[in-house]
Write a structure and sequence with these properties.
Transmembrane segments: 53-73, 85-108, 120-141, 162-183, 217-239, 251-275, 295-317
Helix content: 55-70%
CATH architecture: Up-down Bundle
Distance between the termini: 30 Å
Number of domains: 1
Organism: Geotrypetes seraphini
Subcellular location: Cell membrane
CATH class: Mainly Alpha
Radius of gyration: 23 Å
Strand content: under 5%
Oligomer: single chain
Keywords: Cell membrane, G-protein coupled receptor, Membrane, Receptor, Transducer, Transmembrane, Transmembrane helix
Protein name: C-C chemokine receptor type 5-like
Length: 370
Amino acid sequence: MSTYFEMNQTSELYENSTVDYAYETTEYIYDESNTPCQKEDIKKFASKFLPPLYSLVFIFGLVGNGLVILILIKYKKLRSMTDIYLLNLAISDLLFVLSLPFWAYYAAKEWVFGDQGCKIISGVYFMGYYGGIFFIVLLTIDRYLAIVHAVFALKVRRLTNGVITAVVLWILVIFVSFPGFIFHKAQKEASHYTCSPHYPKKAENSWKLFFILKMNILGLVIPMGIMIFCYTLILKTLFRCRNEKNKHKAARLIFIIMIVFFLFWTPHNVVYLLLAFHDKGSLNNCESSKNLDLAAQWTEVVSFIHCCLNPLIYAFAGEKFRIYLSSIFRKLIPSQYHCAYCLSHPAEKMERHSSMYTPSTTDHDISAVI
């Protein structure tokens, strides 16, 4: 993922930056005024605005995804392909949020974690981002097979296949994220240290454009296209089912997944496309450059929040996960505060119910959605 700390150097306008964050804010001699574009106010805003928000995303992302991993391993025992994908989605989000404290400190101060730290944290960050997106796509395909091609799904939706697919996808994630390890470097600029991408000088603009297009194609266009295709056919199949209650619940959840993904990621990608080409036409001025910097900060934080919502959308929205979560909290809360009318052992009852039900080859597995 090309982040704001990478994107700040995606244009010829950005040669020096004042916004700490793997870039500084640009000083560029504009043709008309022949004066530098001062962005000290952007830097001060980022140093106050970004650290607390990154910290909140870190806390909620850590707790939410940590609970998903706990439930999948301790209660669900990773019995299905879907469980494997949910586990890897949670791991991806954890990788992503674990890098945020470093970027929060960087936004407030400067980079103090050395050159190797710059490379490792940047690489982990990108792995978390691409891993999260790719496993969301994989979960979408898994749901598509379970509902639209139910008979075929019985043959392929096996635990072993899930593990193999997850391993292959992680290899792809590492490959896509590898430039983050290679190009990010820590170096002293002016009076402080930065962590930012440094591309080969002879092909610098080509590399920058490549990473912008990679982010948009792999991070939005392809995932969104697959989701629209799969969920459209899923909805058509669901509305032919007889289970009125469950199919409407599943349809609502599908719309939530689509809308949330679109709203949280589209502004982020659009802003970075504009940043890539902001030296062209009407955007080639200091005021537009400042506005794009601010927009990049806001949209990036909004996109970060998505990793906190993944546990709610993909895990806790399901009845089984809610029951397992209830069981965890029941163990943490003293027994005298338990509800007298609640199930005594909700997780165990859910397991017995699941083990007694086996779908026939003609069933559409709506539980794959809800």
